[in-house]
Amino acid sequence: MMIRATQIILIMFLATGCVKELKENERAWNPYVVNQVLVFESSEKEIDTLVIQTIDNAVSVGPRPELYRYKSSGVYAKRLKLSDNKFATKMILDIYTGTPIPKRPSGVTFEFFFKNAKFGSSYKLKELEKQSLSSVTTKAGTFDDVIKLKPKVYYSEREDEVQFMYWSKKHGYIKFERADGFTWELVEKYNANN
Question: Does residue 94 lie in a domain region?
Fold first, then answer.
C-alpha cells in the first residue's frame, strides 16, 4: 500500500508540472518588443533592416517527463529587404530556463546572421552576468551596458564568421565584428507603430 501511495504522489508531482517559469532576471535579457525595427550598417555602407515579428513563450514538448522540460522565450525577426531568400522569419534570441534532470542551467542563445557575418552561441546566464560592462558608441548612440562576447566555437577559416558580438543589456544587439575588421553596427532602433 505504501509503494502504491508513493507512486501516486510521484505521478501527481510529474503531472502538475515541474517546468520552471522564466524569472524576472531571465526575462530581462530580452530588450525587444513586437514591431521594433533594427537598422544595421556595415563598414562597407551596406544597410540591413530587421523587424521583430513575434516573441514566442513556449514549453519544450515531446515524449519526456516534465522534469526534462523547460520554458523559453524566443524572439523572431524578419528582414525588410531580403538580399537572399534564405532568411525569412528567424529566431534571433532564445532565453530558456534550466532543468533539474538532466541538470541544465538557464541560458541565452544569440543567433544573428547577415549575408556576410554570422554569429550563433549559447551561454549560461551565470556566465553572462559575470561579464564586465563597457561603453560602445554607434550611430544609434552610446551604450554603457555592453558585454563583448566571443562565440563558443570560432571557425577562423570561415570568411563570414563573427569574432565578437556586442550586446547591450537594455538595447540588444549593438555591433558585430569579424577578424578582418569588417563590422555591422546598429544605426537606428525604433518602434514601427510610432
Answer: yes
Amino acid (one-letter) located at 78? K
Kindly report, residue by residue over 57-85, the tens digit of the pLDDT: 766 555 555 555 567 788 989 887 655 55
- What is this structure's pTM? 0.81
C-alpha cell at 127: 556566465
Cell numbers given for 81: 529587404
Question: Does residue 7 lie within any of the structural domains?
Answer: no
Total number of domains in the chain? 1
Q: At a CB cut-off of 8 Å and minimum separation 6, what does 96 contact? A: 70, 71, 72, 73, 106, 107, 108, 109
Whole domain around residue 73: which residue ranges? 19-191
Amino acid found at 179: A
pLDDT of residue 11: 46
